[in-house]
Amino acid sequence: MLPYKRSQRVSDLIREEIAEIVMYKLKDPRIGFLTITGVDMSPDLKHARVFVSILKEDEREMTLEILNSAKAFIRSILSKRLKMKFIPVVEFKLDASIEYGYKIDKLLKEIRDKDEDS
């Protein structure tokens, strides 16, 4: 079994903290239902790419803009909660993997339905 790398531990911790910050500290009513799906850390742990899944398709771009404009606020809260030498610079990105999975699932269902009909 491979050892659990420090970057993975930090990534998991930052994911949990940012999810909590977005849920309880960000008071912007324009933010709809979203999920923090993952965090990719740079090798030096100074940059964090935070992946979010946003439920409503028409709100995705606006929600990403809001999150990215709140980066400094989120980072300041992280600095109070985490005991790290460097608090990573946060960047929010859309995670399209869930939507992609739904599309694949839909295509597979269509194929199964065609096979059953023939």
Structure in words:
- The protein has 118 residues and is of the alpha+beta class.
- The chain has one domain (6-117): 2-Layer Sandwich (GMP Synthetase, Chain A, domain 3), CATH 3.30.300.20.
- The chain has helices at residues 6-24, 60-69, 71-81, 97-117; strands at residues 34-41, 47-54, 89-94.
- The chain has a 3-stranded mixed beta sheet with strand order 1-2-3.
- Strand 1 (34-41) and strand 2 form a beta hairpin.
- The radius of gyration is 18 Å and the shape is elongated.
- The N and C termini lie far apart (47 Å).
- The model has no long low-confidence stretch (mean pLDDT 90).
Terminal residue distance = 47 Å
Structural class assignment: alpha+beta
CATH C-level label: Alpha Beta
- Total strands: the figure is 3
The total count of helices amounts to: 4
- In CATH terms, what is the architecture? 2-Layer Sandwich
CATH topology: GMP Synthetase, Chain A, domain 3
Q: Strand percentage, roughly?
A: 15-25%
The H/E string reads HEEHHEH
**Overall 3D shape:** elongated
